[in-house]
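Tutorial, part two.
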Amino acid sequence: MGWKRYLEKNSIKLILIGALAAGVGMAIAGGGIAYADKTSFCSSCHAMQYVAATWQVSNHRQFTCGDCHLPQESIAEKMIVKNQTGIHDTYHEFLRDYPDTIRLSAKGRAIVERNCLRCHAYTVTNTFMSTGGQSCTKCHRGMIHNQIVVKERVSVE
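Running the prediction step on this input gives:
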């Protein structure tokens, strides 16, 4: 029996098997994405344990690492950045060469800034921050990960 005849005879079966394989693949990928978006996954690296501990006692502990550190505009952009940062972090975790103080890259800072403004747009609407070009993290960088000591607590919301 030739390939053409085999495909004609079994086309429905092959389509169903392909659809089933695609469904299983999507379920596995979705489960992996959901798992990798959890803070427990991010904080499993040695270098992120302090960062996770300080986040856990912050006012933003209800959000995952990805809520702040990954783009939220599109799932495609989010997955691309997640993969890039995951490869970067795994590389440095393997080499154990993270600096004592982990700093955001320029790209990472831009993502965090957009996410700050996405959630706090109403808060900054009638302030100098609404004109653009300002940095949320310049003044509030220690609010989540405790990198600066604030002597007087200022309530933002």
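The mean pLDDT is 82. In part three we will examine how such features are distributed along the chain.
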